[in-house]
Amino acid sequence: MDKKEEKKVSGEDKNEATSTPKEPTKPESKSQLPNKNNNSRKVLLNLITVVFSFFIIGLILVVAQRFDNTTKKTRTFSDLISSIREGKVSKIELSSSKEELIVDLYKNQDKKDRSQVDTETFPNISTQSTTSTLENLNSALGKDKINIGSGNGEIQYVERQKNWLEKLLENGNLWYLILTFLIIGTAIFFIRRISETNNRAISFGNSKAKVYDEMEDGEKVTFKDVAGNEEAKQELTEVIDFLKRPEEYVKMGAKIPKGVLLIGSPGNGKTLMAKAVAGEANVPFFFVSGSEFVEMFVGVGAGRVRDLFKRAKKKAPCVVFIDEIDAVGRQRGTGLGGGNDEREQTLNQILVEMDGFESNAAIIVIGATNRPDVLDPALLRPGRFDRQVTVTAPDRKEREAILRVHSKNKKLSKDADLSIIAQRTPGFSGADLMNLLNEAAILTVREKRKEIDNEILREAIEKVMLGPSLKSKVITPTQKKLTAYHEAGHALTSTVLPKAQKVQKVTIIPRGRAAGYTFHSDSETDAITRTKTEFLSEITVLFGGYVVEEIVFGEVSTGASNDLSRASDIARGMVTKYGMSELGPVSYGEDKGMTFLGRDMVEKQHYSEEIASRIDLEVNNILKNCHDECRKIIVTYRKYLDKIAETLIEKEVLEFEDFNEIVADILPKKTTQA
Questions:
Q1: Sheet harboring 318-323: ordered strands across?
Q2: Helix (H/G/I), strand (E/B), else coil: 62
């Protein structure tokens, strides 16, 4: 219980309840120098490999030829003459070296079957004489000579010509050729090295933007793949329509925004929106990350910006998408120790290029960032990023639509209800929902099930929010009872207060850092604004565990530390920001400046010490009143508290239906199941 942090999902504390993954970003470009050096080493290694391979192949051919010749049986010239006279010879072949006679001898002396022959080698005695080998054979045969020749004679006579390898090996020509090849290869290698060095110096400032029309068709994304944010899609649809029908807008005298800035929290789908624009527009789409402009060398970023827009103008109409534009678009002249000159030069070049378009250029720049507060004002003025589109977190209906998109390739059971999952995941971004379904698929495989059912989906929600369940953790009976009553206090208070979020699940199974938790859901629609009554109800619910520990056990534990911290933050916000106290409609809060932006490093207090004391007094009054209200509820409905706690000790988990059966008598008339 001392490690407990109660988690609940609500509009105000959704950032605490969920760990929102950041939107995937493009990796920063690596330095090109190590890659070029590696390429040079690879070229040299390939060159050596080719030369060595040629040498080995030639050596193998020479050895094979010599081995083939030595395996033949060698006989005397007289034996050849005797074989000719006996009619055993089918063919005589003079070797290319003129030193040997390769003779085919019939295996079978029967003239009816003379198709099979043996090959034997005989020495050539005419190598030193001026007469030909054929003349010497006829001379040796004397009066018994037979018709030997290359025509239609009984015995065929052939003189073998030297092949290219034998000619190459003659007089050591091969070694001259290898030496020439090495010299030429070395020259080519050094020429390429010099050329690569020059090209690297010239092309280092070239843009690394990827053109969408060069991508594979499998990567194409359309608005059908993007659920929710209909208003944002409508804004981008106008941009797409202009790219398809620019003449109609020109006739009407309308000018399309030169830049559209997508703003939203990480994971809400800004990059996905831009990809959908590329898929819908059917025009060239340049994709580049803001971090790819900046390198360690001065002037590279500005050069890459110039090259990017030069390429874009050649392919107009087109779209240029700069993801994470805050990497180069931060406010100029700020930061500790002065600004980054290279980054500022890059930003200046972007400003010039965006505002220097011709009226008919039909180039639209789309930027995406989750930090619009740090962007330079010159980047946001009309003529550059004229239009800002907010990509918001999805509401319940949009979450359900997003879940259906991501579940297309998942094996869901027939009874799987995605509307329940959408109701239980307020504050989840599109990336969170995709991760949730992925975790559900992993859990299904782990449990060796064939389909993803509601039980798996609910388990995936809890795992994403709080971490895996610690079922193997040993919990003492005393600790278990303390956790059960603590969570029962939260659940009971939520049920009694009409403006409080209603209970969906209560469990005392440890998960992550929480010893137990009460799971709440939002109302029918996710609240954009909150009222004073809703804030007070939330603080009262947070006091539920603390008050129960006071009443039942006579002392409080460390398990309520997170509850008290959240309650205090809400109360202070009511007093200093929202004017929900006796101090009146005055806001005493001021956002802290970011030190890296060169703003105030210390938060300034724009009110007197007397006002500070009154603020503290008002905060304490709010907390005390909520504490007293919670105590009245617990005392009044003590029997329901005991029943909830006892059931939790027995079952460890109470789902929506089971919990409602226990508190049916005090349950509000209209309760929406999630």
A1: 210-211, 285-289, 318-323, 363-369, 259-263, 387-390
A2: helix
CA distances from 359 to 97, 364, 380, 614 (A): 82, 12, 19, 59
Tokens of 533: 């009554």
Say whether 376 sits in a helix, a strand or coil.
Answer: coil
Phi, psi of 316 (to 5 degrees): -60, 145
Three-class SS state of 25: coil
Has residue 17 been placed in a domain? no
How many CA within 13 A on the CB side of residue 446?
Answer: 9
Condensed to tens digits (0 to 9), the pLDDT of residues 382-437 reads 888 888 888 888 888 888 889 998 888 888 888 888 888 888 888 888 888 999 99
- In angstroms, the CA 569 to CA 619 distance is 9
Omega of the bond prior to 317 within 30 degrees of 0, cis?
yes
Question: Which positions ≥6 away from 247 have C-beta within 8 Å?
Answer: none
Task: Report the DSSP pairing between strands 100-106 and 117-123.
Answer: antiparallel
289 and 342 share one domain: yes
Number of other residues whose CB lies within 10 A of the CB of residue 473:
10
Q: Is the dihedral of CA 204, 205, 207, 208 positive or negative?
A: positive
Helix and strand totals (H; E) in the chain: 23, 14
Q: What is the pLDDT of residues 618-627, one digit of tens each?
A: 999 999 999 9
Give the DSSP per-residue string, 123-182: E-TTSSSSS-HHHHHHHHHGGG---EESSS-SEEEEEPPP-HHHHHHGGGHHHHHHHHHH
- Does residue 235 sit in the same domain as residue 348? yes
Looking at the fold, whether 292 and 143 belong to one and the same domain comes out as no
Q: Enumerate the β-bridge partners of residue 367.
A: 261, 322
**What count of other Cβ atoms lies within 10 Å of the Cβ of residue 323?**
23
Weakly modelled stretches of the chain, pLDDT under 50: 1-36, 70-72, 112, 201-205, 214-215, 336-339, 360, 524-525, 592-602, 671-674
| pLDDT for res 20 | 38
CATH of the domain at 519: 1.20.58.760
Considering the domain architecture, whether residues 150 and 188 belong to the same structural domain is answered as no
The residue from 340, 373, 390 where one domain ends is: 390
Distance in angstroms (rounded) separating the CA atoms of residues 319 and 530: 40
Q: Cα separation of 535 and 501, whole Å?
A: 11
Output the CA angle 411-414-415, nearest 5 degrees.
Answer: 120
Q: Which helix (H) or strand (E) holds 605?
A: none
- Contact predicate 370/23, CB 8 Å: yes
Residues 6+ apart with CB under 8 A from 558: 1, 2, 4
**19 CB-near residues (< 8 Å, 6+ apart):** 464, 465
Tally of domains in the chain: 5
**The model's pTM:** 0.61
Question: Distance between CA 563 and CA 595 in Å, rounded?
Answer: 30
Give me the amino acid identity at 635.
Answer: V
Give residue 416's domain range.
396-466
Within this chain, do residues 400 and 312 fall inside the same structural domain, yes or no? no
Neighbours of 400 (CB within 10 A): 21
Q: State the catalytic residues.
A: 487
**Other C-beta atoms within 10 Å of 144: how many?**
9
Cβ neighbours of residue 186 under 8 Å, at least 6 residues apart?
none
Q: Collapsing DSSP states into helix, strand and coil, what is residue 105?
A: strand
Q: Rounded to whole angstroms, how far apart are CA atoms 368 and 370?
A: 7
Q: How far apart are the first and last CA of the chain?
A: 28
Q: Name the amino acid, one letter, at 442.
A: I
